[in-house]
UniProtKB/TrEMBL annotation:
It comes from the Bacteria. It holds the Pfam family DUF983. Keywords: Membrane, Transmembrane, Transmembrane helix. InterPro entries: DUF983. The keyword Transmembrane applies. The chain crosses the membrane at residues 66-87, 93-111. This is Uncharacterized conserved protein, DUF983 family.
Length: 133
């Protein structure tokens, strides 16, 4: 295994492409190198990348990922709930069970990915501690 820290280290003049950073964050990888894990566990952010040593401890994701998750899940599931109810008129308990499981499952899938994408966004824009010194 080779040490990537010398070839991946960025300088003040480097470009930080937004799309690449968002995609790497979505994959829960370091927005700088794309190889190291961004998260250690479900939502806990690593202090730094194990590959390129990029620091993450100063990120400010806060409530953003939860807000985006609620926004996306609500905008997907509410119209779907209406369509299913109007089209097939299932039993209320069946409808509740299917959509409760769907909402929880989709939320659990999206939350860490949106947190990674938000940290990737902050890194690409140089926000907070990710600023170019």
């Amino acid at each position: 295994m080779t040490d990537h820290s010398t070839e991946i280290a960025h300088t003040d003049t480097d470009e930080r492409p937004m799309a690449r950073s968002l995609l790497r964050g979505w994959r829960r990888k370091c927005p700088n190198c794309g190889a190291g894990p961004l998260l250690k566990g479900y939502l806990k952010v690593n202090d730094s990348c194990t590959v390129c040593r990029e620091e993450f401890f100063h990120h400010r994701a806060d409530d953003g990922p939860a807000y985006l998750t609620i926004l996306i899940v609500g905008h997907l599931m509410a119209p779907m709930l209406h369509v299913v109810f109007a089209t097939w008129r299932p039993e209320p308990l069946t409808l509740f069970t299917i959509f409760a499981v769907g909402c929880v499952g989709l939320s659990l899938y999206l939350l860490p990915r949106l947190k990674g994408a938000l940290i990737g966004f902050q890194w690409a824009k140089g926000m907070g501690g990710f600023g170019r010194e």
